[in-house]
């Protein structure tokens, strides 16, 4: 039986005078196959001159009509429908194969396996010309992008939550991937993610292929030169790479990144959907663990894994990293030092030396540090609060004047203040803290109660607290203030007379005489 022998080549060699034995040796075919081909050509009256302009498949079909054309044993899927459904969100070939298999089972006909399903769909796509094949070379490019879906981190102390975005990078040849969580998508964060990416890969490539986001690409005209952000261009120069953004509205220019973004969305977010992360570093560590497993997972349709292909074929071709890490910094100019010796930055406060109170200073923000500069010199430095933290104070003791060392309120300080007011006030403050989950949640309500002693007096606040405790378990500011405003704390519970006697002039209405006075006057 002749099975897809190169019939046209057999006729070409025979026309040059080669024997059947020589043709078989030259083509690596059996002598019987060569003889069958020459016999079929003789029976059909076909010579090499007749088929010189035809391709090998046509020549084979001419000499052996109907051979190797067997009806399929399995039901053929509607590939047009399959291709259309794949464009919908969340639809995969595995899902479509499962639906195809269920329909075959329901009709009682045999179904093909998943591997054959994928191969036939790819053959159909190639025949339709729906997509074009892009040749990938090892160590030539890195594709980067932001993932659409997000994660969350929740502060265990305050309960505050923050959105986390995923930066994704991939080496197209090996599909070796990198994922970095970030609390925003600003320019400085974009650059820091690139620095972390290069350190993860251990080198750089001649090309860097991002999307046309404004944090990296200022302008990408159809005709003309691409205009990059200055700091993005500086980063590219530092790592000896050229930024070549994908064409606008052409995601297939970086299909590896697009595919890895999908995997990051489905795998990372899906795997961590039931986990609660208290901080960005904790989430980053979890993603690193997932990446190690993801990159080491064997390919389904070829030998090796992302990690093995990267280490064996791609890592040796990467450009070595420079000796000095690219420093991503952000400057904020002309910030005034407030009277509390602190400078505001993104809803938090950082201390500066008290000698600069009222002056303008500059703030230099690094990846994890915040520095305060004045007159060209650094005057203070602090750890940078995470993006989701609000209204926190970072204070260096040396920045405050010696006579008044400022300190952020805590439960201990609040209770000490309440003790100076009186036992009833201490009970009110203590019950406020007992009613909340975290001490920080009780600071505001407790301080609101204690500050009533400034508008009135500590003695009156103590009396108001004692009066309120008689009718409720945990009174707060909204119950105590009306008592003080109306003077109810001055009234005696039993007689209705004033607790201070006739000579007390502290009330807003002057002297108040009790019922006994008017009762005696009536008797006279």
TrEMBL record:
This is IS21 family transposase. Residues 497-512 have a biased composition (Gly residues). Residues 133-328 form the Integrase catalytic domain. The lineage of its organism: Bacteria, Bacillati, Actinomycetota, Actinomycetes, Bifidobacteriales. GO terms for molecular function: nucleic acid binding. InterPro entries: Integrase_cat-core, IstA-like_C, RNaseH-like_sf, RNaseH_sf. Belongs to the transposase IS21/IS408/IS1162 family. Signal peptide: none annotated. It comes from Bifidobacterium pullorum subsp. gallinarum. PANTHER family: TRANSPOSASE RV3428C-RELATED. Residues 482-512 are annotated as: Disordered. SUPFAM superfamilies: Ribonuclease H-like. NCBIfam families: transpos_IS21 (NF033546). Gene3D superfamilies: Ribonuclease H-like superfamily/Ribonuclease H (3.30.420.10). GO terms for biological process: DNA integration. Transmembrane segments: none annotated. It holds the Pfam family Mu-transpos_C_2.
């Amino acid at each position: 039986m002749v099975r897809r022998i190169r019939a046209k080549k057999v006729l070409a060699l025979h026309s040059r005078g080669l024997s059947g034995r020589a043709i078989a040796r030259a083509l690596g075919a059996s002598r019987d196959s060569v003889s069958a081909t020459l016999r079929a050509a003789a029976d059909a009256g076909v010579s090499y001159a007749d088929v010189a302009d035809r391709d090998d498949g046509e020549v084979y079909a001419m000499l052996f009509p109907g051979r190797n054309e067997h009806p399929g044993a399995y039901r053929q899927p509607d590939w047009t429908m399959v291709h259309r459904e794949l464009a919908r969100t969340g639809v995969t070939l595995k899902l479509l194969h499962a639906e195809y298999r269920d329909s075959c089972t329901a009709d009682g006909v045999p179904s093909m396996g998943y591997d054959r399903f994928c191969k036939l769909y790819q053959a159909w796509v190639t025949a339709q010309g729906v997509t074009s094949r892009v040749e990938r070379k090892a160590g030539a490019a890195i594709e980067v992008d932001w993932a659409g879906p997000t994660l969350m981190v929740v502060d265990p102390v305050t309960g505050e939550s923050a959105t986390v975005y995923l930066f994704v990078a991939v080496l197209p040849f090996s599909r070796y991937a990198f994922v970095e969580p970030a609390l925003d998508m600003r320019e400085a964060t974009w650059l820091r993610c690139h620095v972390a990416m290069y350190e993860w890969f251990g080198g750089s490539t001649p090309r860097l292929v991002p999307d046309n986001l404004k944090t990296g690409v200022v302008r990408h005209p159809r005709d003309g030169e691409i205009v990059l952000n200055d700091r993005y261009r500086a980063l590219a120069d530092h790592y000896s790479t050229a930024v070549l953004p994908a064409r606008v509205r052409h995601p297939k220019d970086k299909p590896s990144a697009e595919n890895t973004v999908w995997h990051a969305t489905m795998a990372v977010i899906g795997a961590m959907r039931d986990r609660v992360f208290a901080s960005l570093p904790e989430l980053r560590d979890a993603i690193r663990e997932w990446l190690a497993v993801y990159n080491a997972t064997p390919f389904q349709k070829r030998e090796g894994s992302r990690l093995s292909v990267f280490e064996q074929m791609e890592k040796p071709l990467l450009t070595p990293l420079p000796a000095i890490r690219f420093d991503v910094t952000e400057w904020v100019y002309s910030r005034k030092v407030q009277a509390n010796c602190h400078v505001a930055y993104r809803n938090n406060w950082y201390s500066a030396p008290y000698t600069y109170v009222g002056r303008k200073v500059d703030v230099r923000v690094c990846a994890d540090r915040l520095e305060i500069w004045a007159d060209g010199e650094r005057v203070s430095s602090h750890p940078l609060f995470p993006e989701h933290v609000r209204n926190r104070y970072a204070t260096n003791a040396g920045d405050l004047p010696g006579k008044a060392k400022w300190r952020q309120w805590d439960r201990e300080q609040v209770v000490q203040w309440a003790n100076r007011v009186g036992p009833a006030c201490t009970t009110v403050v203590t019950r406020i803290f007992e009613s909340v989950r975290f001490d920080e949640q009780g600071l505001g309500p407790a301080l609101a109660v204690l500050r009533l002693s400034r508008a009135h007096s500590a003695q009156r606040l103590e009396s108001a607290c004692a009066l309120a405790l008689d009718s409720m378990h945990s009174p707060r500011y909204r119950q105590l203030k009306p008592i003080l405003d109306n003077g109810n704390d001055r009234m005696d519970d039993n007689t209705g007379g004033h607790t201070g006697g006739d000579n007390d002039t502290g009330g807003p209405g002057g002297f108040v005489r009790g019922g006994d006075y008017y009762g005696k006057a009536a008797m006279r």
